[in-house]
Amino acid sequence: MGVLETEALRIRRWGYVQNAVLATVALSGVLAISVVAPNTLQLLGKVPGVKARFSSQTHSALSRLKQKGYISFSKKGTRAFVEITPAGQSALNLQLQRIMLHPKKRWDKRWRMVMFDIPEKRKSVRERLRRTMREAGFLHLQDSVWVYPHDCEELIALLKAEMHIGKDILYAIVEKLENDTPLKQHFGIRV
Which of 17, 85, 113, 159 makes an SS bond possible with 172, Cβ 3.0 to 4.6 Å? Predict the structure, then answer.
């Protein structure tokens, strides 16, 4: 791997850490700084080499997000908190649009299922989520169950953060789905 490729990988990884931190803060509303790292680690998944440098990456990502005006810090007593700003919320929305516009083309023979149970008192959020899933290309399979043939975990994490629905939505990767021929035809996957 050349120097330029290594640098590009490092920049992409830093961007991913920043997006994960921003999504975590948005998902949590106001977040105590001491809990940012564990929550962000859940969004990061298994990025090679992250555990050893995770704390410094998180703190650096927080600093960069603060410089960009995406988050703000506050202090209550002896505890420090971080909160997403309107500019940070806009950045998350742009990230959602970017992901929705560039789906992968090659199918890895796995279905991505998104299931949600959003309470009636948040009906407008539920309708917005359905509209967004439809626009992103998901297929409505059953009541509150949607399916997509490509990796969309980052999109779902950002939707959870942007709509504050973390506990109300589940993302699953399914290796085998019976009677999936109509799904393959819908998504243009060769049978």
Answer: 113
Picking from 5-9, 25-29, 109-113, 162-166, which range would have the lowest pLDDT averaged per residue?
A: 5-9
CATH of domain 3-87: 1.10.10.10
Can you give the pTM of this predicted structure?
A: 0.55
Burial class (CB in 10 A: 0-12, 13-18, 19+), 22: buried
Give the CATH class of 105-186.
alpha beta
Q: Is 148 exposed, middle or buried (0-12, 13-18, 19+ CB in 10 A)?
A: buried
Distance CA 142, CA 165 (A): 20
What pLDDT, in 10s, does the model give residues 160-178?
A: 887 888 889 999 999 999 9
Q: How far apart are CA 15 and CA 57, in angstroms?
A: 10
Instruction: Report which secondary-structure segment, H or E, holds 67.
Output: helix 50-68
d(CA 134, CA 142): 13
Instruction: Round to whole Å and give the CA distance between 75 and 79.
Output: 6
